[in-house]
Amino acid sequence: LAKTTQPISMDSYEGQEVNITCSHNNIATNDYITWYQQFPSQGPRFIIQGYKTKVTNEVASLFIPADRKSSTLSLPRVSLSDTAVYYCLVIYNQGGKLIFGQGTELSVKP
Amino acid sequence: GAVVSQHPSRVICKSGTSVKIECRSLDFQATTMFWYRQFPKQSLMLMATSNEGSKATYEQGVEKDKFLINHASLTLSTLTVTSAHPEDSSFYICSARMAIGQETQYFGPGTRLLVL
After folding, report:
1. Inter-chain contact A96–B93, Cβ cutoff 8 Å?
2. Among A49, A102, A103, whose Cβ lies nearest the Cβ of B104?
3. Of chain A's two ends, which shows fewer C-beta atoms within 10 Å, N or C?
4. Are A20 and A76 contacting, i.e. CB atoms less than 8 angstroms apart?
5. Cα–Cα distance, B17 to B23 (Å, whole number)
6. Which residues share a beta bridge with B94?
7. Minimal CA–CA distance to A6: which of A26, A27, A21, A19?
8. Element counts in chain A: helices (H) and strands (E)
9. CA B79, CA A18: separation in Å to the nearest integer?
10. How far apart are CA A43 and CA B95, in angstroms?
11. Which pLDDT belongs to residue B101?
12. Mean pLDDT in order along chain A per 10 residues (110 residues)
């Protein structure tokens, strides 16, 4: 199973763009990259998923270079409510297992 | 769409009792559901994979007789913590996957278990 590595924590200020990079060096051909957000005492919330290049939705963008060994979650103009733990996961295509790493604890300050 | 519910949201029980947690996919059919456990300040740990109509597959180190999983229908999976002890106190979270080939998983809100 592909292992992911991401920063343990990040600080930002309201209104800034936040980019969280995740490494997944041994990602397999059929694996997808997915990001989740988790607030304390809540289940993770799906943010975005991608396979290659760039994916954008109403809350975030996901940039994946051609070699797919890393990916970057971009949160535009963060607010205090974006303070949470963000998990980068590589979905093992057969079986759908999600193996969570430690995640990145994002702290947005006023 | 893609809403997953859990019941109860929190439970307090005495040591030695059994606790059942329900996980439901409200607006889609889930061929596969997953159960996770999360201790404070730690990441989610996968406990088992539950497929409708078949036995659950447990991760290494998870006792199948301790954590009974039943996936009775395409919208319901249950986790029963048998003879719970204080060390079983944790945050239990389920997730559901729509269908084979759909890799996105949707998580429930979690169940906080406290064993006294």
Report:
1. no
2. A49
3. C
4. no
5. 20
6. B35
7. A21
8. 0, 9
9. 37
10. 9
11. 59
12. 85 97 88 93 94 94 95 96 94 68 94
